[in-house]
Structures are given as C-alpha cells and as structure tokens.
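Work Package 4 report. The design task specified in the project plan requires that, given a folded chain encoded as structure tokens, an amino acid be chosen for each position. We show below one input record used in the internal validation round.
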C-alpha cells in the first residue's frame, strides 16, 4: 500500500505593535483578535486531540515579534481588558437578541461561553502562550520553528550580510529565551530565499527551512521528485517546498473550503451593524468602527450582499468542517497513491504551509477543521502526519540542490515587497544598516553604559524598520498611513541616536522613552552588527 507523509505548517506572525503611551491603540487589536480567534483556539484544539489520544503532528512558527508581544506585560493587561469589554458586550447582546432573529441569541450565548473559556485559559497560564504551545512540543505533537528577528525581507539585504546575520542570530536567541531550547528549523519571512542564505542557517544550527514551490521547480539541478521530497542545499540544510494542490484546496478564495456558504461571514460584525451610542465602548475610542468578533451571519453565497446574508448556524458549519476534513484527507490519500506510483514506490512528502491566522481569524471554523483533519487521519495507513525532523530522520538518501530565488508572495518573487509604491523604503533601510554597522564596529569595545544603551536602541530601531509587514501593507493598500509612519519613525529615531552617539551628547530622557516604547529584544547586543560576515 502507498504511504506518504503530510507536513502541516502554520506560520504565526504579527509585526511588533506596542503603544504603552496610549491607553488604547487600534492596531494593537490585531494581536488581541489573533489571540482570541486563532492562537488560543488552536491550543484548545490541540488539548482536545491529546486528551482523546489522537495522533497528531503539526509544525508552527512563532515569530520573535509575536513572542515578544506575548510576554509584554502592558499588552497582557490590555488584552485582559479587551476580553472583559467583549464579554460585557456579549451579555448586552444576549439581552438585545431576545426579540431579534430567532437563533441570534443562541449565538450570543455561544460567543459568551467561548470568551469566558479563552479568558480562563489565558489567566491560568499567566499569559504565557509560548509556554502553552511548548508543552505540545515537549509531548512530540508540535514542532515550533523560529523566524528571522523582525520578519525582515532577507532577499533585499544581501549586500549587507551583517543585516542578514543579525536577523537570524536574534531570531534564534529569542526562541532560546522563550522556548528554553534551540530551534531546529526556521521559517524565512515571506519564504524569502536567495542562494547563500542557507550558509547563515547552517552557522546557527538550523537544519531545515521552507520555500515556495518554484524554488525547487527552478532549482539547480532539477529535483527528481519535484516538491514532494525534501532536498538538501550545498550548505547541508534541508529544504521543504510547498505543495500547490494543498494550498489551493484550503487557501483559494475561489475553490477553497473557507468559501463554503455555511461558514461564518467575516465581514458582517456587530461593530458595524449596531448604533453608534450602543457600540461605542467596544470599538476604538476614536469612534472608528471595527470588528468585535460577534458575527451573526453566514457566507450564504459569494454574490449575496452583506445586508442580505442568512443567519449563521454553528452546527451546520461544524458539519461542513467534518465534510471538508474528510474530503481533504481523501484527496491526500489519492495524491499519495499517484505520487508513489510516479516515484516507483518512494514515499512522497506533502508540505502544506499556511498563515496561522487563516485558521480562526479569517476562517472562524479553521481550528475545528484542523482538529477534524487529524481525527480523520488518526491511524491512517496511507497518509501519516509528520514534522520536518521526523521526515529528515526517515530519509536514507537526499538530493543536493541549490534552490532558486523565491518568495510565497504574488507571482513568487519580490514584487510584493519591492514595487513602485514601496521602493522608497529600501534606500533608507540600507543607509540605516550602513550606519548601524559603522557604529557597531567603531564602539565594539566601549564600556560606557549610556553609549551601549543607545547603540542597543539604535539596533532595535533598525530591526523594527526592517519588518516586511510595512512594505506589504503599502502594497496591499490597507493601513498605509500606519505602515509609512512606523517605517519613518523608526528610521528617524535611528538617525537621531546616531547623531547623539557620534556627538557624545546622548539625551538620556529621550532614550528612556524609546526603550519604553520600542522595547523589543531586551537582551539585544548591538555588537551582533560588528561581526565580519561573508
């Protein structure tokens, strides 16, 4: 009988957003929504699987900015307040929906129960979500991989090897601090790869990474098994490539499972439906409308206007997750049989990577789908869930290939992060990098505590400016003003620190403020930029 392995990979990432100088800040809700709708529901799903004795293996990146935000005490307090307000809103909705569409009150009660369970879990672990995920790594069910420090786009840093080295080094250090061990693998931000990056990974003991399909399709030499077996680079680092079939079945807006009419409609939320006076305490203090997570309607149909959507039925949606999990598992069995026959009995490896926030945030039922998928595959003799280290350990032979330059963005290369809308960013990032390297080498041996603090903060500002999220947001034309402001603010702070350090006139009061606001990587050492690389 044909047999293959399925590597399900979830990439959990958000940019570092921390505004302790404001009691509330709209973009901080990105984190709060993701914790409520994705991260904790995944933890709960993993607990149910483990408690039921279901065999499951899953791989997940938790990026350094996300780890830093999880551990941030100000954000933890704001998140508990956020949950409290939403729980209060649920109580009000239960009263309000008594005389509304039949079934809406049942949903309001469901949301209340969910939020109370989420708060209970969050408080029970004292906000240590990395620790909660790490428990599943300790039990062998989850492989947590790292990411480069601030999700910087590495293909556009190749002319400053020190910048790539710093991104990888700090990513590994953050993982070690928060998880308590060294990572085995890495998710390169945006799957951004160019030949040579694997040498940095090898240096830091990282044994595998992920790429998009065409990185192997156009690799040198051509891969014998396409994207369905890991390969190894000249630097002896394993490469796992995305399976396009799995991506289409789950991710596609046209034919993917999340578009089923029974699933919950993301864009219809009481944050937009209710009267201003009623909803004001539960949206942004500016009065700007936003999602609350309380949604009463289902997709109904792709061409159905928002105001004509039908009432959501969770039981129907749960049936859909079972159907789709069954369909996906059957498609994987058929794929394994087909590939195994093509490969002369060699075991195919199907890699299915996704943004973690698809499951729960964008696709409310996504965590249930994952749970049902593992229940479907439990004891399966054809498709066996596996983590990358398990796959590597099972391989007797591996082909050496140099992958092609690639990303998992639109059209597969750099254009999402480098185009006419955002290309202005990079000359400033390059200049900031040059200045950082210059001062790191000049003051590598300094023992002046204030100067060391300023240099460390300068490194933080550079790293935060390098986040690939800002260029992505500008391209997608979403919260452009915020992304542009973040880029400019970090670079302006970097330049100001540079001038103060060079003039030996450091404004300690202002430095205190920057250390408070841009507080990522408390243990950073600017000397990482002094290292001779390449």
């Amino acid at each position: 009988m044909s047999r293959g392995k399925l590597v399900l990979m979830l990439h959990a990432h958000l940019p570092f957003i921390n505004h302790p100088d404001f009691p509330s800040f709209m973009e901080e809700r990105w984190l709060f929504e993701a914790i409520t709708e994705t991260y904790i529901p995944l933890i709960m799903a993993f607990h149910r699987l483990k408690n039921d004795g279901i065999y499951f293996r899953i791989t997940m990146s938790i990026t350094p900015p996300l780890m830093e935000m999880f551990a941030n005490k100000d954000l933890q307090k704001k998140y508990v307040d956020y949950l409290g307000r939403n729980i209060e809103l649920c109580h009000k909705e239960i009263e309000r929906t008594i005389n509304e569409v039949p079934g809406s009150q049942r949903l309001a009660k469901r949301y209340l129960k969910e939020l109370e369970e989420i708060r209970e879990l969050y408080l029970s672990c004292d906000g240590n979500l990395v620790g909660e995920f790490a428990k599943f790594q300790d039990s062998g069910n989850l492989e947590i991989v790292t990411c480069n420090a601030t999700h910087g786009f590495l293909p556009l840093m190749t002319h400053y090897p020190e910048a790539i080295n710093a991104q990888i080094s700090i990513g590994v250090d953050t993982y070690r601090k928060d998880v308590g061990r060294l990572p085995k693998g890495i998710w390169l931000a945006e799957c951004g790869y160019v030949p040579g990056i694997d040498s940095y990974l090898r240096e830091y003991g990282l044994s595998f990474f992920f790429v998009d399909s065409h990185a192997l399709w156009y690799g040198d030499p051509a891969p014998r098994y396409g994207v369905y077996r890991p390969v190894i680079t000249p630097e002896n680092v394993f490469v796992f490539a995305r399976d396009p079939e799995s991506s289409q079945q789950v991710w596609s807006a046209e034919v993917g499972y999340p578009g089923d009419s029974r699933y919950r409609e993301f864009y219809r939320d009481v944050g937009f439906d209710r009267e201003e006076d009623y909803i004001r305490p539960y949206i942004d203090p500016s009065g700007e409308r936003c999602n609350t997570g309380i949604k009463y309607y289902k997709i109904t149909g792709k061409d159905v206007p928002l105001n004509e959507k039908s009432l959501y039925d969770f039981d129907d949606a749960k049936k859909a997750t079972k159907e789709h999990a069954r369909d996906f598992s059957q498609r994987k069995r058929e794929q394994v049989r087909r590939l195994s026959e093509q490969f002369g009995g060699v075991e195919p490896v199907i890699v299915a990577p996704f943004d973690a926030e698809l499951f729960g945030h964008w696709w409310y039922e996504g965590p249930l789908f994952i749970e049902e998928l593992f229940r479907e595959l439990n004891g399966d003799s054809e498709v066996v869930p596996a983590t990358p280290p398990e796959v590597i350990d099972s391989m007797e032979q591996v082909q050496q290939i140099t992958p092609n330059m690639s990303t998992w963005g639109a059209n597969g290369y750099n254009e999402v992060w480098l185009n006419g809308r955002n290309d202005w960013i990079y000359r400033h990032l390059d200049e900031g990098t040059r200045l950082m390297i210059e001062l790191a080498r000049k003051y590598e041996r300094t023992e002046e505590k204030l100067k060391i603090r300023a240099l460390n903060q300068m490194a933080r500002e550079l790293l935060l400016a390098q986040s690939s999220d800002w260029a992505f947001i500008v391209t997608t034309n979403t919260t452009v003003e915020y992304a542009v402001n973040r880029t400019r603010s970090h670079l302006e702070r970097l330049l100001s620190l540079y001038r103060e350090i060079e003039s030996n006139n450091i404004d300690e009061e202002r430095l205190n403020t920057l250390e408070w606001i841009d507080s990522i990587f408390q243990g950073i050492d600017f000397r990482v930029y002094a290292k001779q690389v390449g």
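The mean pLDDT is 97. Validation will be extended to a larger panel in the next phase.
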